[in-house]
Every structure is written in C-alpha cells, then in structure tokens.
Amino acid sequence: MSAVAEFARELRRDPRFAGSSVPDDLEAALEAIDFEGDDVADAANFHCAILWIMGQPGSLDKRLAAINRMIAFGKVVDLDMRQFYYGPQ
C-alpha cells in the first residue's frame, strides 16, 4: 500500500474524518501534485516532502501539523526534513 493510501486509511479511521471527503480529497490533490511534478521541480520536491512526512512515525495529529506547516511554506528549498519534523536534535 502506498504512503498516500495508508495515510488516507488512517484518516478514514479517525472519527474527525470518518465519512468526510477529506481522505479522498487528499489523495486526489497529491495525485495532481505528483503529475505536476513531472514538469515542475518544485512540485516534485513538495510531493516527496509530503510523502516523507506521511511515512514518519508519530501520531496522525503530528503528521497533519507537519503537512500543514509544509503547505504554509509553499516551497521546499534546502529544507532538512528530519529537523523540520523532529525539531532540533
């Protein structure tokens, strides 16, 4: 199962998202970003960063917060993903 599908499955299990369109919308958005990444390097980097976050250990809330922060950045440039997700080591 892909990282996106696994994350969407986790969302569907969460009472806050169960029965909502959020998991399906997320999958569709990431698929669109993946396709855009074929031509746009920033989109490819952003997609990879989101997939990396989805695959990290931690609560669903922690990963959602990290994804939200990544979206707020809007662009992945020279970002240390481990420090971004786990904080200063």
Structure, explained:
The structure is a single chain. The protein has 89 residues and is mainly alpha-helical. Helices cover 67% and strands 0% of the residues. It contains 5 helices and no strands. Helix 1 (3-13) packs antiparallel against helix 2, helix 2 runs antiparallel to helix 3 (41-54) and helix 3 (41-54) packs antiparallel against helix 4.
Query: Structural class, judged by helices and strands?
Result: mainly alpha
The radius of gyration is 13 Å
**Strand segment count:** 0
* Main sheet: strands, sense, barrel: none
Order of helices and strands: HHHHH
Helix content: 55-70%
Proportion of residues in extended strands: under 5%
Terminal residue distance = 31 Å
Ranges with pLDDT <50 over ≥5 residues? none
The mean pLDDT is 87
